[in-house]
Amino acid sequence: MIGSALDHSDWVEKARTLTIDTGLFIDGAFVSAQSGQVMSCLYPANGACVAQVSFGGAADIDRAVESAKAAWTDGRWRHLPPRRRMDIFRRFADLVEAHGPELALLDTLAMGKPITDALTIDVPEAVVTIRYFGECIDKVSGAVTNSPFDATQMISREPLGVVGAISAWNYPLLMAVWKIAPALAAGNCVVLKPSERAPLSCLFLAKLFVEAGGPAGVFNVVNGAGADAGKALALHPDIAKISFTGSTAVGKQLMIYSGQSNLKRVSLETGGKSPQIFMDDLEDLDTAVDYAIRGIFDNAGQVCNAGSRLLVHERLHDEFIARFIQRTPDLYQPGDPLDPQTSLGPLACRAQQQTVLDWIGTGVGGGASLAMGGAPDENRPDGAYVSPTLLTAVTPQMSVGREEIFGPVAVVIPFKDEADAIRIANDSPYGLAASIWTADLKRAHRMIKDLEAGVIWVNCFGDGDMTQPFGGYKQSGNTRDKSMECLAGYMQSKAAWLNLA
Ligand code: NAD
C-alpha cells in the first residue's frame, strides 16, 4: 500500500509541506468564492489551522450549476462513446490511487481520522468504487419489447441531467465518491457540495478527474454552508436530482426543498442506530466481542451504520460486558491521527465532541450506568477526543437507546429470546444495518427476514463489497449506494414507440 512505510514524523513533515487546493472547483479550474469569503479548516487533534478554504454561497452554486448545465447540454460527457468514458474512469481511479497518501492526509487533517484508516479503508474503497462504476459504463442496456409486427418499442436508460451531491464529513472522500462515481458513470454532470467540515479531499478529487481527461464543467465542487450553498443547490431549478448523505433532519428538509422547487429526485442516505444482536448460541464470544468493539469505535463512532445498540442475550450479558471493557483498550488507543499506530482519533470538531459528551450526560442522567469511558481525553486537552464509552442498564425507551449519537458511545440492552431481540431491534425510527451473532443458520435466516434494516451481517459486522446495495429502511434513507441498484438511481427510462405501419 502506498504510504504504508511512513512513520509518524514522516506524516507530520508531509502535512507541513502539503500543498492544499483551497478554491472552489468550477468549470475545470479553482476559483475564489464570489463573496471572497473563506473558512478556516482546523485540525481537530489540536485545533491548528490547516488551511483557509473558499466558502461559497448561492451565487457560486449558480455558477457551478450553469457550468454543469452547459456541459450537459452540449453533451461533452454523455455523448462520448462509452469506452472513452471508461478510459477516463480508469485513469481517474489510477490517479486517486497514486495520490492516495495526499488524499488520506487531507481527510486526516480536516476531520481527525487516523491516517492508517484513511490509507487502508477510505482511499482503497474510493478507488474500487470508481473502478466498479467505470466498469459498468458499457454494461447498461435497455430493451426492445415484444411489440406488434408494425411497431417497435425501445426502452433506453438515460442519465438525468445535472446531479447535486451533498455529502457528510465522516468519510469525506469516500462518501463523495459513492455519489459522484455512479452519477458520472451514468452520464450525468455533477455539482458536489461537500461537508464544510472536511472539503479538502473533494476539491483535490475534482482536479484529478480533469487530469484524467474528464471534460471541464462535468464535475464541479462548491464548498460552503449547508443552510446557504447546500440549500441553494437543493432548491435549484436546473438540478435533476439531489443525492444526499447526512443526517435524517437535513434529509427531511431536502424533500421539502424539492417540493418547493422543481420536484427533483431526492435520494437520501441518512442516520442510524444499528443493533448488533448477540444470541446465547453464538460460537465464539471473543470474536463476537472484538467485532462489537470495532462496530462501534471505528472512526470514533462517526459511522452511519455504527453498531451502537448492543442487544445481548441476558445469559451472556455480564460476561459480554466484562470482556468488552477488558478488550477495548487493546483495540482502541487515542493518539495523534498522523501517527500510523493511532486507532482512535478525535471527533471531527469541538462541537461534535460537546454533542457526544452531552449525550453521555443525558444517558447517565436518565438512569444508564457509565461502565467505561465517558470523558474527554485528559492527555489531549487541545483535541476533540472522547474516550470509548459504554453505557449499561439502558432500556429501549431511553433517548440514548434510540437516537443516533455519532460518537464512540455504545449502549447495552439485554433481551430474553429471539422474539424479544427482534422486537427491540425493530423498535427504532432507523433501519440502516443490523448484525446477528448465532451458530444456528436457520435462526439467522429467520431473523434476517424479520429485521427491518437495509443491510444485515451474520457473524460479522461491516463486511461487504461493491455488489452490496448499501442503504436503509425507514428514516435511515430511501436509496442504496454501491451496487448496480445505485447506478440505476442515476438514470431514467425512456420508452420510444416507433410506428412502422
Ligand atoms: P448533516 O446533515 O449535518 O450535513 C450533511 C451535509 O448536508 C453537509 O454537506 C451539510 O453542509 C449539508 N446541509 C446541512 N444543512 C443543509 C440544508 N439546509 N440544505 C442543504 N444541505 C444542508 O450531517 P453530517 O453531520 O455532515 O453527517 C453526519 C450524519 O450523516 C449522520 O446522521 C450520519 O448517520 C449520516 N451519514 C449517513 C450515511 C449513510 O450512508 N446512510 C453515511 C455517512 C453519514
Describe the 3D structure.
- A seven-stranded mixed beta sheet has the order 14-15-16-13-12-18-19, sandwiched between helices. A five-stranded parallel beta sheet has the order 9-8-7-10-11, with helices on both faces.
- By secondary structure, it is of the alpha/beta class.
- The model has no long low-confidence stretch (mean pLDDT 98).
- The chain contains 15 helices and 21 strands.
- The protein has helices at 8-17, 58-74, 82-98, 100-111, 115-136, 172-185, 200-211, 226-235, 248-260, 285-297, 317-331, 350-365, 418-426, 441-450, 483-488; strands spanning 24-26, 29-31, 38-42, 49-54, 143-144, 151-159, 162-166, 189-193, 219-221, 241-245, 265-269, 275-278, 309-313, 369-372, 389-392, 409-415, 430-431, 433-437, 455-458, 473-474, 491-499.
- The protein binds nicotinamide-adenine-dinucleotide (NAD).
- Residues 166-170, 175, 193, 195-196, 226-227, 230-231, 234, 245-247, 250, 253, 269-272, 304, 404, 406, 432, 472, 477 line the site of nicotinamide-adenine-dinucleotide (NAD).
Q: Which structural traits does this protein have?
A:
501 residues, 5-stranded parallel β-sheet, 21 strands, Aldehyde Dehydrogenase, Chain A, domain 1, alpha/beta, binds nicotinamide-adenine-dinucleotide, 39% helix
Task: Furnish the topology, listing elements before pairings.
Layout: H1 8-17, E1 24-26, E2 29-31, E3 38-42, E4 49-54, H2 58-74, H3 82-98, H4 100-111, H5 115-136, E5 143-144, E6 151-159, E7 162-166, H6 172-185, E8 189-193, H7 200-211, E9 219-221, H8 226-235, E10 241-245, H9 248-260, E11 265-269, E12 275-278, H10 285-297, E13 309-313, H11 317-331, H12 350-365, E14 369-372, E15 389-392, E16 409-415, H13 418-426, E17 430-431, E18 433-437, H14 441-450, E19 455-458, E20 473-474, H15 483-488, E21 491-499
Helix pairs in contact: 2-8, 3-5, 3-7, 4-5, 4-7, 5-6, 10-11
